[in-house]
Amino acid sequence: MNEQEIHRSECEDGTIVAEPNAVPPRPQRIILTLVAGLALLIFSLFLSLTTGIFPISYAELWEVLFSANPDPILKEVVYQTRLPFALDMLLLGGCLAVSGTLLQLRTANRFASPTLTGLMPGAMVGLCVVLLLGMNLDSFGSMALCIAGAVFGGFIVFTLNKIHFIRGRSAEVHLFMIGFIIDVALRSISGYIVLLGENQQEWAISVGGWGIREGSFTFWLALVTLLVAGSVFAFPKLLRPLYIPFVIVLTAATVWACGTIGYIGLIVPYFMRCMIGNRPRLLMLGSILWGGGLLMLAKVISARINEPVGIPLTPVLACIGIPFLIFMVWREWKRSSLLEK
């Protein structure tokens, strides 16, 4: 096997990572990836502003955005309702993608994501406990329980992952198998807690990943996301030991605000690292662009499938995430076989 088939790159903590059939990303590819992410973001935002119960054509939207005297009703719908909600989706998608990117950078594992590390299902257990106790969802006490649940779920997955009781598997596939098992177990616990509650419909909306709940502290979620992304962008090496605590807070905040949303925290960081490499600053920027744009686009599709109610976001994202996950597993098996040779 020659040097073009295996590219060895040194991570910031000194770990040597071998990537078969990989070459250092060229500047043209990095720029193209970021520009494409920005284009996806703008396109998804444009679709989000035209999608809803009140129909708005593209010409009417153009008039609202750029005309000096737009229709007051259309202006109110766009600026007071749809634009804030679209920005919420951008915030959530960016938050989930940044969480997955930090996990993959810290663990040097391509399958590390808020879901497969137990953080998101653990936080969901905490949210279900909040609902069972009748606590105010928009309180910092409920946020603290979500953080505690995320810590609990992550502790289980990382502890079991260190045991390596599934022999003959690579580190990536081992984490995937452990994370999948714990994810199913914690989601079952959450489902059982939901059955103990009284208002099933309210619970389903709170934990089902329909989007940010009305009244949730969007400001605090935005503040935490911007602080984490900005800090990592400014001091990537200095803050490397804090990547996991950052991810715990970000994941708990997203579950607290909208329930569970899968796949964004896995496929976007994986794609970004393939296209950009292990460059924390560029990865932060690319993750926000692609994560926010993809989640906004998924929300548009979910809203148009079952108008005007829509469907949860995770089934829509699964149409992309499941094939991509299968590709990731296949690629990892191929990578392991090449390294063995």
TrEMBL record:
Transport found in the keyword field: yes
Predominant location category: membrane
Record's keyword terms, sorted: Cell membrane, Membrane, Transmembrane, Transmembrane helix, Transport
InterPro entries xrefs: ABC_BtuC-like, ABC_transptr_permease_BtuC
Top-level division of the source organism's lineage: Bacteria
Subcellular location(s) of the protein: Cell membrane
Membrane topology: Multi-pass membrane protein
Ranges that cross the membrane: 30-56, 83-103, 115-134, 140-161, 173-197, 217-235, 242-270, 282-302, 309-330
Family statement drawn from the similarity comment of this UniProt entry: Belongs to the binding-protein-dependent transport system permease family. FecCD subfamily.
Stored PANTHER family: ABC TRANSPORTER PERMEASE PROTEIN MJ0876-RELATED, FERRIC ENTEROBACTIN TRANSPORT SYSTEM PERMEASE PROTEIN
Protein name: Iron ABC transporter permease
